[in-house]
Specification:
Structural class: alpha/beta
Radius of gyration: 21 Å
CATH superfamily of the largest domain: Glycogen Phosphorylase B
CATH class of the largest domain: Alpha Beta
Number of helices: 16
Largest sheet: 7 strands, parallel
CATH topology of the largest domain: Rossmann fold
Order of helices and strands: EHEHEHEHEHEHEHHEHEHEHEHEHEHHH
Helix content: 40-55%
Shape: elongated
Length: 376
């Protein structure tokens, strides 16, 4: 099959990671796959990393030049032209604007393609116009929580859980002490880590205050918080850390390509998110065997309820501080937590996710003249 995945850019957080890993997995299975970004290239390190990964998997990459905040009509015209030339069987879009523009192109092209939408978040607002343009697609939700909150008019609806490449989080050859030394952690430090875009949704300011509560009370000597990610709130969060007097206890690491190693070197994972879809960072921490402190939202419960070593707390600094203290005191090792979680994580591999999407494509995609019969 010829498959196009469409999103804004390679800087869209978890939805982009899902798109990129799915593109790579589908290309590995012999399908012709393109990754299409509506926006112009940003030149960020994050973008460069994913371009290199996708090119290594023989995935085609296209940037359509949209300026962020614009209506995207020129990008839509370029998407139409690309679809005309490439004769896609499937156009799979991610996030409201790409969903709408892909739906508009589907209406303007002959022969048409199968349009699949993935809803990545429980809070994914769409204007009436964007929702109408996206109608006529097959909708996939990354979680039951996302399905309940975002019911879209669709030809079909299904839930396909997100998946990750689990082996890279469970099997790291370098010893934990060596990784900690490389990252500059001392043996006596207790290290908590959070991973995600620095945006209001993640509510990382709560984690900062929780660390300040524990540090001032002397309850966790040597406590360190590692924040992986970038976003519009980075400078305000850095100012907050300074105001709280915990600058020496907080490190802003930016976007990282070595998250498996950072998780291996850490003692606990914390997510203070206000809402999610099916958070990849939590999946990564679960696979790495970290004790996890998670805000008590339905999305976290859906993913991690029943997982050993997970604590849920109301998203307030005092509740998060108490839960983080308990997590750091857990006697279970990473190997023990990995073993006990493994049966519950089997449905969250990237291979399983790709299998589910391929089954969906093949169920609804009509054969076209350029498709190879064996791929049907």
């Amino acid at each position: 099959m010829r498959i196009a995945h469409v999103s804004h850019s390679f800087d869209c957080g978890g939805s982009m990671v899902v798109m990129a890993t799915l593109c790579s997995e589908l290309a590995k299975r012999g399908h012709e796959v393109d990754a299409i970004c509506l926006d112009r290239q940003s030149g960020t390190t994050h973008e460069t990393y994913w371009i290199d990964q996708l090119r290594a998997s023989q995935v085609g990459i296209f940037f359509l030049g949209r300026e962020r905040g614009s209506a995207g009509l020129m990008a839509m015209a370029r998407l139409w032209s690309l679809a005309q030339r490439r004769h896609y069987d499937i156009v799979h879009s991610h996030l409201p604007m790409p969903d709408a523009l892909s739906g508009l192109v589907r209406r303007c092209i002959m022969p048409s393609f199968l349009h699949v939408i993935t809803v990545h978040n429980t809070y994914e607002p769409r204007s009436a116009l964007l929702a109408w343009l996206a109608r006529g697609a097959h909708v996939v939700y990354c979680s039951e929580s996302a399905r309940r909150v975002n019911p879209l008019t669709a030809l079909s609806q299904t839930v396909i859980p997100n998946g990750i490449r689990q082996a890279q989080y469970a099997n790291i050859s370098l010893a934990r002490d060596a990784i900690r030394q490389q990252l500059g952690f001392t043996p006596e430090q207790r290290v908590a880590v959070t991973v995600g875009r620095l945006c209001p949704q993640k509510a990382i300011h709560i984690a900062l205050v929780a660390v300040a509560v524990l540090t001032r009370a002397g309850r966790i000597p040597g406590l360190q918080l590692q924040i992986c990610g970038e976003g519009e709130l980075q400078k305000p969060l850095q100012r907050q850390a300074h105001q709280l007097g915990i600058e020496s206890s907080v490190r802003f690491l930016g976007n990282r390509a070595d998250i498996p190693q950072i998780l291996r070197a850490s003692d606990a994972f914390i997510s203070t998110s206000r809402h999610e879809g099916m958070p990849l960072s939590v999946l990564e921490a679960l696979c790495a065997g970290l004790p996890c402190v998670l805000s008590a939202i339905p999305e976290h419960y859906e993913l991690a309820s029943g997982m050993p070593g997970c604590l849920f707390a109301s998203p307030t600094p005092d509740a998060m501080a108490s839960a983080l203290e308990s997590a750091l005191m857990t006697p279970a090792t990473a190997a023990e937590l990995q073993e006990r979680r493994a049966p519950l994580l089997r449905k969250h591999t990237v291979e399983q996710t790709a299998d589910s999407y391929l089954a969906l494509y093949q169920r609804y995609c009509q054969p076209s003249w350029h498709c190879e019969p064996e791929l049907r």
